Amino acid sequence: MSKIQSFGSGVYELELTVPVRSTKFQPGQFLHLTLDDFDPTSGWWPESRVFSIASEPKQTFVTIVYSVKGNYTKRMEDELVVGKKIWIKLPYGDFVIQEKDTPLVLVAGGTGVSPYWPFLLKPRETGAVHLFYGVREENHILFFDKIQILKSQKWFHLHLMVENGSVKDLPYKAGRLSVSEIKNELGEKFDLADFYLSGPPVMIKTFKNDLTSLGIMDSKVHIDEWE
User: Fold this and answer.
1) What distance in Å separates the CA atoms of residue 112 and residue 176, rounded to the nearest whole number?
2) Most buried residue, 41, 127, 151, 199, by CB count within 10 Å?
3) Residue 226 banded pLDDT, cuts 50, 70, 90
4) Ramachandran region of residue 8, left (φ > 0), alpha (ψ -120 to 50) or beta?
């Protein structure tokens, strides 16, 4: 464990140095993390939790973000300190963001923004990527510095929704993120876009149903589901 950053309200960013030359995964995939001892010769993997990878591939570290919501993540909050050695395994998942000629709409609620960063940090010159990001308040905005850098890129379009309070140095709207808000912002591009959904399960279910009701085909809606 090389870095721990707290965002308040039980939300943390962790940076883990890995004992390999570089990490290999595709943007959108996740890893398993366990707090318990693991013997690679036993073939038995202990209890663990899964977290989206928020750093770029081919690095000597991986970054994840988690929110304290149960006994295991409470253990993480209590037990993880800089310098502690823990076991992870990766990569997993098929929530892989594909480059397309059509607009890409990345929808994130809270820590659900994490799997998008390996994709957003890739250099690109063309295309249109819309990040619709909903948070409760300013201090819950993850990767604030990276967003500030990206907002100057012509291909990147930030749509930040904040439920409480105001935000300095980033454009935002007050309120809760919704499919109707996304449709209003995209206009005629709405029917052409591919949608990626990441966030709390209730949010994902609601957004998926709302997109379907507006005529968006299932093949154009991609959900961050961990199995």
Assistant:
1) 15
2) 199
3) low
4) left
Residue 98 belongs to a domain:
no
> Domain check: are 88 and 173 in the same one?
no
Give tens-digit pLDDT for 159-197: 999 999 999 989 999 999 999 999 999 999 999 999 999
CATH number for the domain including 219?
3.40.50.80
Q: Is 182 a domain residue?
A: yes
Q: DSSP letters along 186-225, please?
A: HGGGGGG-EEEEES-HHHHHHHHHHHHHTT--GGGEEE--
Tokens of 121: 């940090």
Give residue 19's pLDDT: 83
- Give pTM, 2 decimals: 0.90
